[in-house]
Design goal:
- It is a single chain.
- This protein is of the alpha/beta class and 300 residues long.
- It has two domains: 182 residues, D-Maltodextrin-Binding Protein, domain 2, CATH 3.40.190; 113 residues, Periplasmic binding protein-like II (D-Maltodextrin-Binding Protein, domain 2).
- It has twelve helices and eleven strands.
- The strands form two sheets. The chain has a six-stranded mixed β-sheet, with helices on both faces.
- Helix 3 links the parallel strand 1 and strand 2.
- The protein starts with a helix and ends with a helix.
Length: 300
């Protein structure tokens, strides 16, 4: 009986020790954020979430940003960061780049229960452009080559609808970010820009209005894609299972554990996000297939 009791005691003591082992190797945990907005606002938006994670996980947390989406994808592939908030296309790029070495954990859910969003083509409301046909021979800015809503989905769907971007528009430059594209439309640099909305209340144009970057009623959209699966919070598969589990739980619980941090990271006043829900790779396979199609088109 003494032997059994001692064995049981050792087992009980060992469980928390094993669960804490990942903290020995990962004293700093880094997560990447895509360049959907300017870097200053991007970092500020995630600072409360960073503090929440440090308190919850008991390790230092670092935010990683890059000048473009591929910088975050490459950082994941090179094991320079552990986690990342990715769009669907950026996740597909990371999945392809790492030969399946990343896994989606969670995605955001809106107040109406939806877990998707829409690519749109935005124009100035006072412009003569009321439909895609009006943009023939004009400049349409895409956001980033690894952006789902800012490039992959609008490019793919416009081709399917008979509007080959490379020939239908006079130019299709990359603005570098969603905000830069919309701002370029307002400033007259582009005739139109691809970006996204979650619904009529939430999205890039609405966030820019809330931040005072553009005026309400200055930007309208004349085209909207089919629904896109919201991008996932993603982990490298080669991380300790305990670390992935701990981070997944922390992110999933942030809406109730730290509502202020969740609201800020989601886009403050313009956000309609309410929670995180679990996802798996099957949800994003069609994005992987779409990217493969786009790559084949570029080669041909």
């Amino acid at each position: 009986m003494r032997f059994l009791a001692a064995t049981a005691l050792i087992a009980l003591v060992s469980v928390p020790a094993m669960a804490a082992d990942w903290k020995t190797d990962y004293k700093v945990v880094r997560f990447g954020v895509l360049s959907g907005e300017n870097e200053k606002d991007r970092i500020a938006r995630y600072k409360p979430f960073e503090a929440y994670l440090e308190k919850t996980l008991g390790v230092d947390i670092e935010i990683f940003t890059a000048g473009n989406y591929d910088g975050v994808v490459q950082a994941l592939a090179a094991d320079q960061i552990e986690f990342a908030f990715l769009g669907s296309s950026a996740y597909a790029a990371a999945y392809t780049e790492t030969n399946g070495g990343v896994e989606p954990l969670l995605t955001s859910q809106q107040e109406d229960g939806s877990t998707g969003y829409y690519s749109i083509v935005a124009v100035r409301c006072d412009s003569p452009y009321k439909k895609i046909e009006d943009l023939k021979g004009k400049v349409l800015a895409f956001a980033d080559p690894d952006s789902t809503s800012g490039y992959a989905v609008p490019n793919y769907n416009l081709v399917q609808q008979g509007f080959e971007p490379s020939t239908y528009f006079s130019a299709i430059p990359f603005s570098g970010s969603h905000e830069a594209g919309v701002q370029g439309v307002v400033n007259g640099q582009f005739d139109a820009a691809a970006t996204y909305i979650n619904n009529e209340k939430s999205g890039i144009p609405q966030r820019m209005v809330a931040k005072g970057m553009i005026k309400a009623g200055e930007v309208c959209w004349i085209w909207k894609s089919p629904e896109i699966t919201s991008g996932p919070f993603t982990a490298r598969k080669n991380l300790p299972a305990e670390l992935i589990s701990a981070m997944k739980d922390a992110v999933k619980n942030v809406p109730t554990a730290d509502p202020a941090a969740f609201k800020e990271m989601s886009g403050a006043e313009s956000s309609t996000a309410k929670a995180y829900v679990e996802v798996n790779h099957d949800r994003y396979q069609w994005i992987v297939d779409m990217r493969a199609w786009l790559k084949a088109q570029r080669k041909s």
